[in-house]
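User: Please check token order:
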Amino acid sequence: MKTIKIAGVPEHFNLPWHLCIEGGEFEEAGIDLQWTDVPEGTGKLCQMLRDGETDMAIILTEGIIKDILNGNPSKIAQVFVQSPLIWGIHVGAQSPYQKIEDLKDTKAAISRYGSGSHLMAFVNAKNQGWNPAELKFEVINTLDGAVEALTNGAADYFMWERFMTKPIVDKGIFRRLGDCPTPWVSFVVAVRNEVLEKHPQTIKSVLRIVNQTTAEFKHIPSIDRTLSERYDQKTEDIKEWLSLTRWSQKNLDEKMLNNIQNQLLELNITNKKGTFADIVAI
């Protein structure tokens, strides 16, 4: 039995992994896949890959590309979610801000530097015509930290996946001023280079098993109810989310990678480009 450590955010995108683990599918293939929930998100996942705390991570595309360019010894082994991630732009319920434009020169709450909430603030700034160099940040680590920061005024707005924050909006804690979709595929599977080199067939088996589930995921009986119960979401919100979400069973191609890297350069999220072989497991 080969042990493989894998980590990702505790969000509905990752339910296919949990269903495969709970169904014993990895075990049948001789793989002990050990999942760790990481509520802190992409920045923490990058650090875990660097430190060898995890072998694989389900991680935001922009975050891992930036970190690989900065020396993270990992590669993208596959696209996991093909559709863009829809980031809600949130303020505290009592905030004076009513429109996204009102947030110019205010402070964004971010889970950590290099996280999706950090990098997507640059995408939003570009969309709004703001100077990205003037963005200000408050590190809040988790969603609970964001609630505290927006409530006590330590930060002014917070960008996070729209459907995961909807219960907080429904409770009247946050208000959502609008959305900011990623201009690229949302989640990829990153694997440490050492693991790719030592256990290539095991990684192929892991991906083959989860791909079978994602290919059929939307057709699983009562999947909307399962998601609703597990992730504390209204069924109508889950149905909308499912209609917008497309999983992938393929890797990035060179054209897609170049397109993403060009956009990251334009946004000043990165200051260089890597080769296809630097970033993608071939």
Remarks:
- The chain has a mean pLDDT of 96.
